Amino acid sequence: MSAFMMSITPGIPCSSSSSSSQSQTVTSAPPPTSLPVRTIPGAYGWPLLGPISDRLDYFWFQGPETFFKKRTEKYKSTVFRTNVPPTFPLFLGVNPNVVAVLDCKSFSHLFDMDLVDKKNCLVGDFMPSVKFTGDLRTCAYLDTSEPQHAQIKNFAMDILKQSSKVWVPELIANLCTLWDTIDADVTKDGSASYLIPLQKCMFKFLTKCLVGADVSNSPKIAESGYAMLDRWLALQLLPTVKIGVLQPLEEIFLHSFAYPSFLVSGDYNKLYKFIEEHGKEVVNRGQTEFGISKEEAIHNLLFVLGFNAFGGFSVFFPSLVNVIASDTTGLQQRIVKEVRENARSTLSFESVKDLPLVQSVVYETLRLNPPVPLQFARARKDFQLSSHDSAFDIKKGELLCGFQTQVMRDENIFDDPETFKPDRFLENKELLNYLYWSNGPQTGSPSTSNKQCAGKDIVTLTACLFVAHVFQRYDSITGTSSSITAVEKAKQKAV
């Protein structure tokens, strides 16, 4: 189940906001241009037949990357009409029609809250049943115009602000346990599959930091809490993601209907009760300082913990390990040198800010492997959307869909976009304006007036801490996105 979740978990954590002066970056679309106005190319096809054909291409015959790339080539446009799953037979209430926006300029309209509405479109027109979250719409499904959005997002940002006091020591302690386990397995078996140990590590760490609860207070949660979150996430997202199992079995059993919440309600209720009992301080703060009910506080805490934080890191960290552990260009030696010279023996948020190469590697990993591949938003009103070479008229109510894996390979913005370049953001920090993994640019600031991930900054700092810790401990590691095959212990420690 854990290996399966590595491929489908779509979240990313949330953290504190920056200065309000930057938040405009997130909410401002490109200024009007004099580009030629073009009719949006593409089509939705015949009712039922068109969506089914596109669904089979998306999941079976082509896969998401080829699906969007071939249509871009066909229409000679990064903006076009198509269908995205889920769809027929048992999704009759879901409209698969979208306008794809696949370059950095058109994609940025998804962050302009004057133009777009984010209500109930986290994963497209399809929305998992609210029974997965206690019959409540959590913050991720709320638009900024809804009063509850500001209350809950402020609560989430406060959780992260409070957690910053224990974030680094808890992370390092849990990473030490993770790598001790990997060391032992490599010594014993010659390699170590680290996905389950990583998830256990992140679950324990994030529960302590975000919920204020020690999982050791409940042996059942300590042993199986991570797997409970895996199952809960999987059943919500199965209709929307390509898994890669034998076709047509995947289409028949995974993409044809929504799984019912009762299959994981027992797990969810155990996690709910654990937070209710052991996360009282955080839950009470939600009630007294942010005016939300106990139920709203706990369900949103669970969503931030499971969907955003645990889910996001479960996808992101294996990508980061793969990039570094499979490198043969000398990147590890350069990182070792930077970490040993600049990070100091006691890691902190401040010390990793002195690691520009590590930061650039983290950003480049997020560019090529965005943890949330698809972003959606619905037009709040009629407006004109622009790509690099054309303008297009968008009608109120139309659903925009951006596939970040292609957007982040925009050759108008990124030189040699298919290549991993560890120095890319070291050499040109202006490119951070186009790094959109967090539902907004890396230079933006999360606030109650936008939908940018509140944890934008703490996520990248945590990734830098992860890399710095590895290369304080080792001179080199060898492996993939699922296993470590060799480690060489550090001969020289950081000073």
Descriptive overview:
This protein is an alpha+beta fold and 495 residues long. It has 19 helices and 10 strands. It has a 5-stranded mixed beta sheet with strand order 1-2-8-5-3. A 3-stranded antiparallel beta sheet has the order 4-10-9. Strands 6-7 form a two-stranded antiparallel ribbon. Strand 9 (474-479) and strand 10 form a beta hairpin.
Task: Name some characteristics of this structure.
19 helices, 495 residues, alpha+beta
Brief description of this entry?
With 495 residues, the protein is of the alpha+beta class. The chain is 47% helix and 9% strand.
Instruction: Provide a count of the helices.
Output: 19
Q: Whole-Å distance between the termini?
A: 41 Å
Question: Pairing-aware structural class of the strands and helices?
Answer: alpha+beta
Low-confidence residue ranges: 1-28
Q: How much helicity do the residues have?
A: 40-55%
Number of strands: 10
Shape: globular
Order of helices and strands: HHHHEEHEHHEHHHHHHHHHEEEEHHHEE
Determine the mean pLDDT: 93
What radius of gyration results from the CA coordinates?
22 Å
Biggest sheet descriptor? 5 strands, mixed
Strand-residue proportion: 5-15%
* Strand numbers in spatial order across the main sheet: 1-2-8-5-3
Topology:
Layout: H1 2-6, H2 23-27, H3 49-61, H4 64-75, E1 79-83, E2 97-101, H5 104-107, E3 116-117, H6 147-163, H7 167-189, E4 192-193, H8 195-211, H9 219-237, H10 249-253, H11 265-278, H12 280-290, H13 294-325, H14 331-342, H15 349-352, H16 356-368, E5 374-379, E6 383-386, E7 391-394, E8 399-403, H17 404-407, H18 424-427, H19 456-473, E9 474-479, E10 483-489
Parallel strand pairs: 2-8
Antiparallel strand pairs: 1-2, 3-5, 4-10, 5-8, 6-7, 9-10
